[in-house]
């Protein structure tokens, strides 16, 4: 497919971009002391070489009071030499680069700023930090605004092609703009006109600091998705005024960190928030950049062709595949490794204080240290297992020049990734498998499915090295009655091999257990297509549709031994799954042990004694154990054997793919 709109140039003030693809700012954790590092430069230089038009880095704190120490510092001249190295590397790679000017306000933890109290528009407690900030005084407001202007001037000196003012996500400018956090009674509070004042004055000061011909961008929430907060209507009014004050481009996202409406998880449909950009575009003449859950060039081209926006964000998409733009432009879109919004390596790591990684791209953040090099001597490699670990190992080894055969006992590749296809909001995990398969075929990996790789088969293949990625099998706990016919494994249920009765008890509140419960609870609810049809034709009342949307035909209860369900789910995804389970009426019993299974249900033991849970079906989600019984026999006939993924020890997909990549580097 051609992409005439996506790969057309666009001029923003005095800056011309070669295409409409933008990597927006995202915290990476590659600058532990705020100073630019080789790791940061290598990361962004790879994306520049991959063909993106504009890279926005940050957030870059404008002072010492509104950011984390691991963010890219721009609040002092001493950081300019490092920033110059970064801008030079990105420009040499063929992209333009901008710095995002960041002040978090009430989202700053006091522990990050030496125990001092964070400041905001008003003293309104932050649900994100659990702290209450102090309100800025009238004398302090111009000083904070001046820090934005000084940081912008510093960015220009360091060679950035543009600056972006951060006015979204619930950070300081948002806190002044929103009635949720602005309770002031002076000229910066009360009416919407007054609440706009702080942000508009920041824009004006930044514009004066950089001059008329330097691009000034603004990141803006098209809807705060906060109860009582600003909607797309107010955002459009503010954008129109900000354009008059000097903004050349609007980067539109949605929500705050406290928002209960998911913005970036896999459960969010692709392109879900394009309508927010459309609303802003209708109010301004400046170009508009659309964000959130756009990970494919086909989707980006459609958005631009339809006139919904002028540029498209692919921040996590470019973490997943730095060469995404070049692959699309050169007719190799089928080889793109797509971001699937799993959040495991990016946002989960950020909230846990760790550097960003990526499930589908183990090289992210390790561009120099782990670059696949040509093998000194091509070998014949046999990979056993067609799950994510095995497929990644095969791709990496073949990329290095080895002759690779991959054998899988099932008649399809994908392993446990395919179990996600029936789980609401998780089906994109199949994309991980599809992308690996496309790359396997392009790399001429021999693929054999429906074949068990026993010792005789391996001996016949005469491999120089074997990568054992034979996966895992589900555990069957030792509970009286576990062999009853109404007991099924979660894997078999998700794979479509078995069904359940109306009342279902799921044993295990881990990721598999909760996702299985989510699948069961949605059986009988309205699909998005049917809901749209019924609403558009006013076939049912809103009240009836709401009931049909939120209640299925199963009564589902999750039984978990520990005091907390979903311990193995990442922080940024767990709350969305628990929220969905709550909406669908799923009961979760924690600190509850299954002690027996009868034809009528489940005998349980809780802190206050024994009880009984009526159930027509019992679904087992008690974890898994490694499937590696052949490894010892393989080592007797092959000198080089690498055991990876679940075959080594049960783990998540991020860890499995990383191990597969590292195994592919070894032979």
Describe this structure in words.
This protein has 667 residues and is α/β, with parallel strands linked by helices. The strands form seven sheets. An eight-stranded parallel beta barrel has the order 3-4-5-8-9-10-11-12, surrounded by seven helices. It has a five-stranded parallel sheet with strand order 15-14-13-16-27. Strands 18-25-19-20-21 form a five-stranded parallel sheet. The longest helix is centred in the first third of the chain and has 19 residues.
Which features characterize this protein?
667 residues; alpha/beta; TIM Barrel; Rossmann fold; FAD/NAD(P)-binding domain; 8-stranded parallel barrel; 5-stranded parallel sheet; 21 helices; 27 strands
Reported for the largest beta sheet, the result is: 8 strands, parallel, barrel
* Multimeric organization: single chain
CATH arch. level architecture of the largest domain: Alpha-Beta Barrel
Low-confidence stretches: none
Strand order of the largest sheet: 3-4-5-8-9-10-11-12
Radius of gyration (CA) equals 27 Å
User: What do we call the CATH homologous superfamily of the largest domain?
Assistant: Aldolase class I
- Please give the share of residues in helix: 25-40%
Q: Quote the average pLDDT.
A: 95
Tell me the total number of β-strands.
27
- Based on secondary structure, the structural category is alpha/beta
| End-to-end C-alpha gap | 37 Å
Helix count from the secondary structure assignment: 21
Indicate the CATH class of the largest domain.
Alpha Beta
Shape: globular
